[in-house]
Design goal:
- With about 190 residues, the protein is of the alpha/beta class.
- A 5-stranded parallel β-sheet has the order 2-3-1-4-5, with helices on both faces.
- Helix 2 crosses helix 3 and helix 6 crosses helix 7.
- The structure holds adenosine-5'-diphosphate.
């Protein structure tokens, strides 16, 4: 049985940074659906062609495409011990699809990253200068924050009702935030 840990929070909250460190130190797979989609775009796969414009505009890729991609990824051997989901689920439909595979992949905890909009926009614009990510523009950031609030934020309640949520203050030093998250993995 492979445990799933969900990192949920708005763009720019630092989910990816923390997920990669936690995954490395606690022997878990780090699955970023955003990274996977960007690879598909780079490799010009069928999925990449469908996703490219949506990604650039900051809109979500349709549920069925992302769900298939995620379920296939979970079958890889590096997920044997468990995985951190970074950027999935992002809609209620995606969350329900995870429930369907919960016999094999039960959700252990949902970490909700909290940060204010001003800080998020500042971080993403800074990141864009370095990463060159085509969706780290002011226009796309605004759309992504709106999409987060309308489609993804309701998942906080959904998981709160299942008593799976741990809130993380995503403002501060990367190392302090790491320690706050790692505490929960040390206690597993
Ligand atoms: P960020 O959190 O900074 O927006 P991500 O790398 O997590 O960055 O996601 C980048 C883009 O990839 C999203 O704006 C969206 O277009 C697409 N994407 C990633 N994960 C999903 C998902 N679970 N469902 C739909 N689209 C997704």
């Amino acid at each position: 049985m492979s445990k799933l840990f969900i990192f949920l929070g708005p763009p720019g909250a630092g989910k990816g940074t923390q997920a990669s460190q936690i995954a490395k130190n606690f022997n878990l797979a780090h699955i970023s659906t955003g990274e996977m989609l960007r690879e598909h775009v780079t490799n010009q796969t069928e999925l990449g062609k469908k996703a490219k414009n949506l990604l650039d505009e900051g809109l979500l890729v349709p549920d069925d495409l992302v769900i298939n991609m995620l379920v296939e990824r979970l079958s890889h051997t590096d997920c044997k011990n468990g995985a951190i989901l970074d950027g999935f689920p992002r809609t209620l439909g995606q969350a329900k699809s995870l429930q369907n595979i919960s016999d094999d992949f039960p959700i252990n905890k949902v970490f909700v990253f909290e940060a204010d909009n001003e800080e998020l926009i500042k971080r993403i614009l800074l990141r864009g200068e370095v990463s060159g990510r085509s969706d780290d523009t002011e226009e796309s950031i605004k759309v992504r924050l709106d999409v987060y609030n309308s489609d993804t934020a309701p998942l906080v309640n959904y998981y709160q009702e299942q008593q799976l949520v741990t809130t993380i203050n995503a403002i501060g030093e990367i190392e302090d935030i790491y320690n706050a998250i790692a505490l929960h993995f040390n206690n597993l």
